[in-house]
Amino acid sequence: MAVPTTKAEFKEYCLRKLGKPVIEINVDDDQVDDRVDEAIRYYWDYHFDGAEKTYYKHQVTADDKANRYITLPENIIGAVRVFSIGDPAISTDDLFNIRYQIALNDLYTLTSYSMVPYYMAMQHLGLISQMLVGEQPIRYVRHKDQLHIDADWNKYDVGDYILVEAYQVVDPETWSDAYGDRWLQNYATAKIKYQWGANLTKFSGLQLPGGVQFNGEKILDDAQAEIAKMEEEMITSYSLPVYDLIG
């Protein structure tokens, strides 16, 4: 069969990896759904292909000003920063800003004038702005979908746009290529295998006709080892490196 492109195909793919239909997999369909959802959520949280940087545009409403926060879509899992409405030092729509004056008086021609002083001046202005003003403080909790902006909301007018740098999940239902990810396939299969073993442990010692006995503990132990190995592989091979924090 080709690479799965839907959740139903993905579930069947994982069950076939466990032996279906040659072996009866004693897992309910709802349990398979739950384990696949768990695997996808873990994939979103840790895999570098599970989420992507995006710039979300939000138009301010009267309710936003009253609440002092904006509501982000469910697929946003993290907000990094809010772009400033305007910086009088470096904005481009002001005749008397520093950038315009440097370009007007010093950059007569780009072919004979060095760009180094201009670049250094912009870096210096950016440093001054960062030291004296700093980044706009924000607070975001993904389970509430509320981005709190700790600012003077009087500077926002109804109809203004707020631009948020954020991270959104790569939903396999929209981008079906995610169902073909090798790590996600193996991890979801291991999660289903764990559920299978957990189900069979309820019948430990039960003997079937012909002398066959359930061995749920072996399936459960194997699945636990596979999950632990794959989660370690995720951290060491598929997660983005943790940035140093300097305080």
Descriptive terms for the model:
247 residues; alpha+beta; 2 domains; three-stranded antiparallel sheet; 42% helix
Would you write up a description of this structure?
- By secondary structure, the protein is an alpha+beta fold.
- The protein has 2 domains: 7-49 and 173-238, no CATH class; 51-169, no CATH class.
- Mean pLDDT is 85; it is low at 87-92.
- The chain starts with 6 loop residues before the first helix and ends in a 9-residue tail after the last helix.
- Strands 1-6-3 form a 3-stranded antiparallel beta sheet, with no helix packed on it. It has a 3-stranded antiparallel beta sheet with strand order 2-5-4.
- The chain is built from 7 helices and 6 strands.
- The chain has helices at residues 7-18, 29-46, 62-67, 98-105, 116-132, 182-200, 216-238; strands spanning 51-59, 69-71, 76-82, 138-141, 146-149, 161-169.
- The radius of gyration is 27 Å and the shape is elongated.
- 42% of the residues lie in helices and 15% in strands.
Strand order of the largest sheet: 1-6-3
- Overall, the morphology is elongated
Average residue pLDDT = 85
Count all strands and give the number: 6
DSSP strand (E) fraction?
Answer: 5-15%
What class do helices, strands and sheet pairing give?
alpha+beta
Counting H and I runs of at least 4 residues, what is the number of helices? 7
Order of helices and strands: HHEHEEHHEEEHH
Distance between the termini: 53 Å
Oligomeric state of shown chains: single chain
Largest sheet: 3 strands, antiparallel
Low-confidence stretches: 87-92
Number of domains: 2
The whole-angstrom Rg is 27 Å
Query: What helical percentage do the residues reach?
Result: 40-55%
